[in-house]
Design goal:
By secondary structure, the protein is mainly α. The termini are far apart. The protein has helices spanning 17-42, 45-52, 56-62, 66-81, 85-90, 96-111, 114-126, 132-158, 167-187, 194-212. The chain is built from ten helices and no strands. It folds into two domains: 17-79, Arc Repressor Mutant, subunit A, CATH 1.10.10.60; 82-212, Tetracycline Repressor, domain 2, CATH 1.10.357.10. The longest helix has 27 residues, at 132-158.
């Protein structure tokens, strides 16, 4: 009788740091999906553990309660949604219109990405229960972009190309015009073609520039 082919399996041990971090991210992604599907109130740690394929005690070892896990899941969504400020800086050129077009396209792509849409949905659903999350998104995502846009506008104002008052207010107006409208439509499911969406952005940028050019 031929000898059996015995495969020696390695004994289980502690996961590597990289694997532990990967599983942690998977937990937060699964938790966000559960919260999106069921809402905060009807979501349970049991349900999240089942979705993540993770023991409930492991989750409680990381997060003491459901609210803390929820906030961590939202922070994970913010981290995935954020566009590094270096990406915006790399889009700047001497041509103000092209710079603003590039900024608007980058911001809109982030907002309408799967992570961006998930973040907007969870904020709309649970923002009243966790109001500090709005501030988190503003401080980590919107404020750095506004600061950079204000710097761009200030540089061109100093060169005499445009005339602006408070750069923070003007930068906010730009994002509202060029990104806010198209982003809201996209989040509501409006199916614009890429060409139509880009033409909307271009029109909004031109309208903005018409308002700040010297008279």
């Amino acid at each position: 009788m031929p000898p059996r082919d015995v495969t020696v399996r390695p004994r289980p041990g502690r996961p590597t740091r990289e694997r532990a971090e990967q599983r942690h991210h998977e937990l937060l992604d699964c938790a966000l999906e559960v919260f999106l599907d069921n809402g905060f109130e009807r979501s349970t740690i049991d349900g999240i553990a089942a979705a993540a394929g993770m023991a409930k005690r492991t989750i409680y070892g990381l997060y003491p309660d459901k609210a803390t896990l929820f906030e961590a899941a939202v922070q994970r969504a913010v981290d995935r949604w954020l566009v590094p400020i270096e990406t915006l800086r790399a889009a700047e050129s001497d041509d103000l219109e092209e710079t603003l077009l590039a900024i608007a396209r980058i911001r809109l792509a982030g907002i309408t990405s799967p992570a961006g849409i998930a973040l907007q949905r969870i904020l709309n659903a649970e923002g009243n229960r966790f109001p500090r999350l709005f501030r988190l998104v503003y401080d980590q995502g919107t404020m750095p972009a506004l600061t950079f846009i204000g710097e761009v506008l200030t540089r061109h104002a100093e060169a005499g190309i445009i005339e602006i008052g408070d750069p923070d207010i003007v930068a906010t107006a730009f994002l509202s015009m060029a990104v806010g409208g198209p982003a809201t439509g996209a989040l509501w499911g409006v199916a614009w073609s890429p060409d139509d969406l880009d033409e909307r952005i271009r029109t909004c940028v031109r309208l903005f520039l018409d308002g700040v050019r010297p008279r």
